[in-house]
């Protein structure tokens, strides 16, 4: 079901993105026509764009309506001055009513998020100096503090001597697209219930951790963890109560490890921890003993679920690189075998890969 929703989300995002791109290309093409007309006009006509707009009132009215429905606005900026023109659609993108302010380059810069101003300015300068298309995504801060994402595209207009005198382009609000992209990224990389890393991210991080360990000659500990008594809670109190147990377990595990370590849920009531950068000089058996006892103790603490006090146990299997396995697949297999051996031994037990004779 999750995979189905991910696929549907991706399809919707692609449809929205293609429609927005089509609208943006249409407006960019119209701007290109205007640029071509301006380029063939006598020097100085660019400073009289307002007069040109008056000459074609019907075209301008249709253009304004298309911007309104497409939620795309047009702008032009005299690069040597503060003069900036916004079409009506742009005011709302910056949190203003039409005519509420007089657009200026300084006002535009002040509206751009401080962390994005350098990027936007660098893009403008690159466009002016090289003639490359201007294409930037950046955040703006509205007067009420709201943060929105915009995408701005355009190009430079030069006079008869090749000097850049104006930039013209289009801008549109892409906040919803960004939200969709972030949501799809989370769905693809996080467990939907707990917010922990999923199996895909686990394997990516474990692979990177092992590569780093080979270079730095350090150790990586992989811990497979399975809850005991979880099915009984599901059967007695329902799946909502079981979900609360999994969420609480995830929080407890996150609080036990370093921010550099990974906690993942790979399905059901199975969790995995990746502890990287462990010194090769450590007494690894003693370190793992302390860690596993700490995990068992933390997860054995009572939980208040569905107005009831519940207690669960756990079984842990641990494999250490390079002590118990040299490859990622063998390390995962060893930790998995160790966990099932611990489960057969009783509640709240752990086993090391070395205890399996592998």
Give me the strand/helix succession: HHHEEHHHEEEHHEHHEEHEEEHE
Shape: elongated
Span of the ends, CA to CA: 38 Å
Strand order of the largest sheet: 2-1-5-4-3
CATH architecture of the largest domain: 2-Layer Sandwich
Task: Give the strand content.
Answer: 15-25%
**What proportion of the residues is helical, as a percent range?**
40-55%
Instruction: Return the average pLDDT rounded to an integer.
Output: 83
In DSSP terms (H or I, runs of 4 or more residues), the helix count works out at 12
CATH superfamily of the largest domain: PAS domain
CATH topology of the largest domain: Beta-Lactamase
**Secondary structure: number of strands:** 12
Give the radius of gyration: 30 Å
Integer tally of domains:
2
| Helix/sheet category | alpha+beta
Can you tell me the residue ranges where pLDDT is under 50 for at least 5 consecutive residues? 1-17, 38-53
Biggest sheet architecture: 5 strands, antiparallel
Just give the CATH class of the largest domain. Alpha Beta
